[in-house]
Amino acid sequence: MPRRFGLKLAGILCYCLFAAAVFAQTTNPTAPGTENSKPTAVSPPDNPEPENNNPNQAHQNQQTTAPNQHAPSLGDLGFPSNETKPNPEEQARLDKRSHMLRTHQRLGLITTVPLVATVVTGSFAGGRSMSSTNRDLHAALGATTAGLYITTASYAIFAPKPHGIETRGPIRVHKALAWIHSPGMILTPILGAMGFAQKSRGEKVHGIASAHGPVAYITAAAYGAAIASVSFKF
Question: Which of 69, 72, 88, 147 has its Cβ near the most Cβ atoms within 10 Å?
């Protein structure tokens, strides 16, 4: 009897242990050591960030998120604000000067045509008759040259000159030669008119009128050198 009772008691204890183990597995499936445990699912974030495989876009994003670094202004470099502000009046003067000087250059080139023709026809002007074709043509070409020259010079003289502009390089040579061909352009037609009158009276050209030819050649040479001085940089 005692042995049979002990076996029954051992069986009851084993059954209780087995039932307790099954109960523990059903109430805690994630407990370690169980075969039926499953991993806990992780919910995705509310605002997932899209994957960006473009390196250029990533570089731009880095530049956008980087702090703004402003370049130093002219005031930071020590320039006064009154000198760095735009000046509409000064800009208008510069524009007008540029336009007038371009016109001066164009008219200067146009003037060379009647000037060369005047010099060429000067060697054929002569005779005692006032109706001589050569003398009339020479005088007409001389008057045309003088008129174009005065117009050309006026664009350079009356062009506004802003403050602080210095004359240098070829422009200095160009202006220096103007002191030669400008008086020559005034004296040449005057001397020519005097010689024309003397020839018309049947006289031989004499006195100061005889300097008409040399003055004309010097004037033409100085004028040509003035044009060449602004055509080449040195």
Answer: 147
> How do residues 142-196 score in pLDDT, each as one tens digit?
999 999 999 999 999 998 887 777 777 888 899 999 999 999 999 999 998 898 8
Which pair of tokens denotes residue 86? 């735009």
Closest CA to 139 of 194, 90, 84, 91: 194
Alpha carbon of residue 121 to chain centroid: 46
> Band of the pLDDT at 84, cuts 50, 70, 90?
low
Structural contact between residues 139 and 192, judged by C-beta atoms closer than 8 angstroms = yes
Distance of CA 168 to the CA centre of its chain: 22
pTM score over 0.70: no
DSSP letter for 68, please. Answer: P
**What's the rounded Cα separation, in Å, for the pair 149 and 189?**
12
